[in-house]
Each structure stands twice: as C-alpha cells, then as structure tokens.
Specification:
- By secondary structure, the chain is α+β, with helices and mostly antiparallel strands.
- Helices cover 27% and strands 21% of the residues.
- The protein is built from 17 helices and 23 strands.
- The strands form six sheets. The protein has a seven-stranded mixed beta sheet. It has a six-stranded mixed beta sheet with strand order 14-20-13-19-17-18, sandwiched between helices.
- Strand 8 and strand 9 form a beta hairpin.
- Helix 9 packs antiparallel against helix 11.
- The protein is globular and about 75 Å long.
- The relative contact order is 0.15.
Length: 554
C-alpha cells in the first residue's frame, strides 16, 4: 500500500496541489465571489429536477435528490478521477507499514463558506461526530467502523488510526456523500447533526453554497462560495427547478437550461431533446450502475440452479439495451461493470438462448401439461411475483421480462410499489420472490455490492460483518454459507491489492454462475443542455452527480 501511494503521488502531486476537487477544474484560481464585479452580468442557469430537497443537505442522511448535488457544496480529503485517487482537501498522505495509520497533510488555504477555518481540528470534529450518523453498515465502507481514533498531529496534519488494515480507505474518503467535510456550524453542542440548520445551509468548502428556496419548495437557488479555494467556475448562480413530469416541455420552451441523468429523464426523452435545434445531448463513457433482476433462492423452486439459469438464459439483454434504452445502455455480462476497480471476472453470465433455456427446464421436469402456457412439476407451477419501485424507471424492463418469461413458460405477476414501501418489504423484511432494482453506483460500488454478498443480514453477528441488502446477500448461492462468509470476510482484514483482486474475481465469478442477481444492463449517464447558453459539460467520476463547476458557458 505504501509503495502504491508513493508511485501515485509522484505522478500527480505537483499538478494537483493547487487545483480544486469535486469538479473538472485543473488550474489554480483566486477565490470566487457570489456577486460578480460591478459592470459584469451575472451568469446563471436553471436546472430541472424531479423532486425537491425535502431532507436538506446533510451528508450521511438519505436525502436522495440532494445526493446528486452534494459535490457542489462539499469536498473530501481525496477524490477519485480517471482511475486514481488524487489530492483534494488533503495535499498528500502516507500509510504506515502495518496499514493501521493513515496520515493526511491538509491544505492550509481553505475556509468553509461560513468563514470557519478548515484545519485538522475541523477534520477531527467532523469525522468524530459523523461516526454515529454513518453507522457501521457496509453501505459506506468500513472506515468509520475501523477508525479507533483520529489524532490532530499539528494544525494541518491529521491521522486516522485503524483497528486492522483496510484496502478501501482512500475510496471511502472520496465519497462526498457521506464524507464531504462540514464546518462546526453543522453540529449541535452534543455533536449531533443540526438537521434543521442543514435544511437551508450547505456549510462546506465546495464551489457553491445554498442561497434561498421559494415558499413552495419548487425553486432552490445556489451561488458561488465566496471563500472557494479552487478555480472559479463559469456559472455564478444556478437554480434547481422542481418539475416532476414536464421536463421535456420545459426544456423546449427555454424554461430550463440543463437536465441531468437517467433518473430524471428517460431514454426516449433524451433522444427527443438531443435532436432539437438549440439543445445538445452528451453521454458519459463510464458504466457505473448495474440494473438487475434478483431471484430469491430461498423460495422454491428458485432454489433450483437450473430454474434460475434458465430464467437468465431467456432474457435477451441486448434487446433490452437497444429497444428499451435506445442503445444508451450496454448489455451486462457480469454483475459488476469491468470499468470499476477490481471488477475482473473470468466467468460471464450465460448468453441469451431461449431454446437452451426451454430445454434446461424440460430436462429438469418442468412441462406445460395442461396447455395453459405455464410449466409445472409435481403440482407446482412456475409462477412468481416481481416486486419493484413504482418510480417509472423499471416499468418497460419489467414488461419485457414478463413477456420473455411467458415465452419460456413462466408466469410473472407484477407488483410495483412506492419506493419506501419497496425498501421496507425487500430490504427490511426480506419478503419477495423476484425484484427489479439496481446497484448502488460508483464510488459505493463495487465495494458495497461485493461486501453485501456476505450471506447474512444479521447485524448482531459477533463478527460485526453483515449484509444490508437481502437481494445481494444471496448472490453466492452456489457456495456454502461458510465458504461465502470466509470469502467476503477476507475483505475485512487486508489492504493487499493482490488479495483483494482474488476475492473480487472469485465473488464475481460465483455470482455470475449462481443466477441469483441477474445483471441486465450497465448504465452510463446522459445530459441535455441549452447550447445557446452552455458551451459544454464534462461528466465527473460519478456520472449521475450534477457537477455545475464542469458546466462551461458561452
């Protein structure tokens, strides 16, 4: 690990020490101002968003819409860009030989946007207070759980002391959600988050900050951080306008300048808008999310590998990518995209082969004996219910899956439910036969996805290791629980990249063969913008996060 860090720092340190992070700026600049100099016109844009920021702007709190904007307000000690972990609020770092101490040297020219100084004390306060907020689940990595103490070595040097070596320290620290650092104003005297304050404040070090919200919570305005230490962005002010259903019309009418993401704009709407004069569409080149069908192998006959394999073989994933997503997504042949760190699999998922899928079921005794189109065996029919969030994201894909299964001789009943109800039923109650859902996206993946392959959701396990996702916890179904626990547990006691790679490859290969989590397609990302106002947009390392500093105006 130490050798790796030295090689990394040698190549990038001189270029990165003066650059801002969390955006695509690469050159130093003076601090920006929220008000343009006298005589200069304010440069502003409007962005369309599906829902409001109902839970405020607190990292570590499940504020779904705000997650996509956190990198505009907050920054971490390091950032991930183009396959490397680079300096951000830390200028450099070193790991001890035993992997138990990480020491970070901090920038000495940074203030929070509320004027409070950024230093080692601020870093310690933030991480000490956030430990209880983030908790000990695998969703955000293990850093907080493993950190026994954070020490202030001097004004601009801070050390994290771990109870055991951990390979993913830098990745965890690159997660602006939830490890973008907030000023002391974000906390109450007892160290708890001041959630009321964070409803209308973004006390971070990023290029932008909250200014106001209208009475109906449908328009939020953000301005430049006057204390920002990095390159000054083009956009002086941006307004996020909440438009649940008519974003295409709003863009055509010139009411908004920018729409970001497949969670906000479906593929057909993207294609429609990108062909309109005055509107430009751009697509990222990084696969960062897997959309999948999950089968509950604890429900008979989904406990039969042949049945699960046949289901996967009967899904034409290329057709989904081309016809449902208009070629804007790529067919998935592994549960995690190869674009992501460590995601080298040697066993792909089965290819599409409807005839082979039918033969596999018939060889296993599943036949349609009464001509109703549904196969049965020993009095049990191949009939299942698929549960999924009723957000509109999965509707067409589920209909395609239902049709494919009908051709195979399996009845699929659909159960679209509210997102929070889905989280309760599936994640909390483990109550489902099949689901349609997606992975957690980079930088939480691939670590979170693979760590959640641990085959137990018992958070009282004395080992302290457990999965928070019942769907993914079943992914290694062809392995014994003992072997799966030993494999995934290995990620909790090493910082050796060779050992980590071996664990990932073994886990991905097993998951691909188990056909419990059936990957359908990989999502990259897209955006559309008013090209009379905006010159260009560059996606950052988390393509579905809106990076306003990466918007360049005409």
């Amino acid at each position: 690990m130490k050798k790796f860090l030295s090689l990394l720092l040698t190549g990038v340190m001189s270029a990165m020490l003066l650059a801002g992070c969390g955006n695509t700026a690469n050159d130093p600049g003076s601090a920006s101002s929220s008000t343009p100099p006298a005589g200069e016109e304010e440069r502003s844009i409007t962005i369309a968003q599906s829902a409001n920021f109902s839970m405020g702007f607190a990292p570590g709190v499940q504020s779904y819409e705000a997650t996509y904007y956190m990198n505009n307000f907050y920054e971490g000690l390091v950032e991930y860009r183009d396959g490397e972990y680079l300096p951000c609020l830390a200028t450099d770092w070193v790991a001890s030989d035993d992997g138990l101490t990480y020491t970070f040297h901090l920038r000495d020219d940074v203030q929070f946007n509320d004027g409070i100084a950024f230093n080692a004390e601020a870093v310690k306060l933030y991480f000490d207070n956030m430990k209880s907020v983030i908790g000990t689940s695998a969703n955000y990595g293990q850093l907080d759980m493993l950190t026994t103490e954070i020490t202030v070595d001097d004004e601009y040097t801070v050390s994290f002391h771990l109870s055991r070596p951990y390979y993913n320290v830098l990745n965890d620290l690159s997660m602006v959600m939830p490890r973008g650092i907030l000023s002391a104003a974000a906390f109450n005297e007892d160290g708890s988050l001041n959630t009321e304050y964070l409803m209308t404040h973004t006390p971070g070090t990023g290029p932008y900050m909250f200014e106001s919200v209208n009475e109906t919570a449908t328009e939020y305005t953000f301005v430049k951080n006057p204390n920002y230490w990095g390159e000054e962005p083009d956009v002086d002010r941006f307004t996020v306008k909440v438009i649940p259903e008519s974003k295409v019309a709003a863009m055509r009418a010139g009411e908004v300048d920018f729409i970001m993401g497949s969670d906000t704009l479906d593929a057909n709407s993207y294609l429609e808008l990108s062909q309109v004069e005055g509107i430009t569409g751009v697509i990222s080149d990084f696969d960062f999310v897997t959309e999948f069908i999950a089968l509950n192998d604890e429900v008979a006959p989904l406990d039969d590998l042949n049945v699960r394999t046949a289901i996967q073989m009967a899904i034409d994933k290329e057709s989904i990518a081309q016809n449902i997503y208009s070629g804007l997504r790529a067919k998935a042949d592994s549960v995690m995209p190869a674009d992501m760190p460590y995601c080298t699999a040697t066993v792909p998922t089965p290819d599409y082969d409807m005839d082979g899928a039918i033969a596999l079921l018939e060889d296993s005794g599943w036949v349609d004996s009464n001509g109703d189109g549904i196969r049965e065996k020993d009095g049990t029919a191949l009939s299942f219910t698929i549960t999924y969030p009723s957000t509109g994201v999965y509707d067409n894909m589920v209909l395609f899956f239902q049709s494919s299964m009908a051709e195979l001789g399996i009845e699929i009943k659909t159960n679209p439910i509210d997102l929070m109800a889905f989280m309760q039923q599936v994640f909390m109650e483990d109550n489902y036969e099949m689901t349609a859902y997606m992975s957690y996206w980079f930088p939480y993946d691939p670590y979170t996805f693979v760590a959640n392959m641990y085959p137990s959701t018992d958070y009282t396990d004395p080992s302290g290791i457990y999965s928070t996702d019942p769907q993914v916890a079943k992914a290694l179904a062809i392995m014994s629980d003992e072997d799966a626990k030993k494999l995934i547990g290995g990620l909790y006691n090493t910082d050796d990249p060779v050992a980590v790679q071996k664990i990932y490859t073994t886990a991905l290969d097993s998951a691909n063969e188990s056909s419990v989590v059936i990957p359908l397609n990989y999502r990259n990302e897209y955006a559309v913008f008013n090209n009379e106002v905006i010159e260009s947009y560059t996606f950052n390392s988390i393509p579905n996060h809106v990076d306003v500093a990466a918007i360049h105006l005409k």
